[in-house]
Specification:
By secondary structure, the protein is an alpha/beta fold. About 30% of the residues lie in helices and about 30% in strands. It folds into two domains: about 220 residues, P-loop containing nucleotide triphosphate hydrolases (Rossmann fold), CATH 3.40.50.300; about 60 residues, Alpha-Beta Plaits (2-Layer Sandwich), CATH 3.30.70.100. The strands form three sheets. Strands 6-7-8-3-9-10 form a six-stranded mixed sheet, with helices on both faces. Strands 2-1-4-5 form a four-stranded antiparallel sheet, covered by helices on one side. Helix 3 packs across helix 4 and helix 4 crosses helix 5. The relative contact order is 0.14.
Length: about 300
């Protein structure tokens, strides 16, 4: 199932939570959806699932438009919200059977058995949900989101609050699921998104600020600035580098210079010409490889963190 989000805007009174957000997700893709607290991630996820209406814009699944009463689309979507809503007085298997009943599935017991096996709930299936650890509660939530075999899975902070062992288990489960389904994953754990997602979308203050593959992120193509590392055979002053075209900052750590410049200018030939004109030997000249966390900070710097 392909997803198209077209110019989605959402207003809560005078507050604009989303502002003309557009992007698409292809069938079988595992998309990391990022943004600081209050950026509008959860709001957009609720709009995608039909839980909230947009103030303007459209959400399309293949050739069908999402509306509040379009149950035909909803049956193809699995959704795990950030605050996993579970009935803690129910037993695990009982809860899954009730969920399967909501979807009017045939052979409910067989489907519940499959979900228990897939999510690793075998030893916990006869326990009350209230007695489970946070990690196993997340597994129950995933089992509920998957029980009707949706084509698209939307996960809002699925690993929030998990310990390292639980984190790795749930991460492995998501990887396994993504082989057969389109997955949108929201998380504040940058290493997790970088490790398992093929592409990342970042929003900030309700606006789309980046959309690209992990390889594009590491090459610096999603950031507004370029960073290069340079080392010379002689001592130079920061003022010399700051005078070069496109250079914004230059800092020396005792061994190499880290130079940052506008993305519109490739700093490598600029630094090379500087070395030639000043009779310097370049010992090192390379573009700094970036990670997702660094890109995220650059693109969302200055955002207010809201609860």
């Amino acid at each position: 199932m392909n997803l198209l989000i077209n110019k989605i805007t959402k207003l809560f009174g005078k507050q604009k939570a989303l502002d003309q957000v557009s992007f698409s997700v292809s069938k079988g893709e595992l998309l990391g959806f990022l943004g600081p607290n209050g950026a509008g991630k959860s709001t957009l996820m609720k709009i995608i699932t039909g839980y909230l209406p947009a103030s303007s814009g459209e959400v399309w699944f293949d050739d069908q438009k999402m509306t509040s009463d379009n149950t035909g689309i909803r049956k193809h979507i699995g959704y795990l919200p950030e605050h996993n809503p579970l009935y803690t007085d129910l037993y695990v298997r009982e809860s899954l059977e009730i969920t399967a009943g909501f979807y009017r599935l045939e052979n409910i017991k067989q489907r519940v058995k499959q979900m228990v096996e897939l999510t690793g709930l075998g030893d916990e299936q006869h326990k009350k949900i209230g007695s489970l650890s946070k990690g196993y509660r997340q597994r129950v939530g995933l089992a509920q989101a998957l029980i009707h075999d949706p084509q698209m899975l939307i996960l809002d902070e699925p690993t929030s609050g998990l310990d390292p062992n639980q984190l790795e288990d749930v991460r492995g489960l998501i990887r396994s699921i993504s082989r057969e389904k389109t997955v949108i994953l929201s998380s504040h754990i940058m290493q997790e998104v970088e490790a398992i997602c093929s592409r990342v979308v970042i929003i900030n203050k309700g606006k789309l600020v980046a959309d690209g593959s992990i390889s594009q992120i590491k090459s610096g193509l999603l950031t507004q600035n370029q960073q290069v590392i340079a080392a010379f055979d002689q001592a130079i002053q920061a003022e010399q580098l700051l005078a070069l075209n496109g250079v914004l900052t230059a800092s020396f750590d005792g061994e190499v210079w880290e130079i940052e410049g506008d993305q519109t200018v490739d700093l490598r030939p600029v630094v090379f010409r500087f070395a030639v004109e000043n009779s310097l030997t370049l010992l090192t000249l390379l573009q700094k490889q970036q990670n997702l966390e660094g890109v995220f900070h650059q693109l969302t710097r200055g955002s207010e963190i809201q609860d």
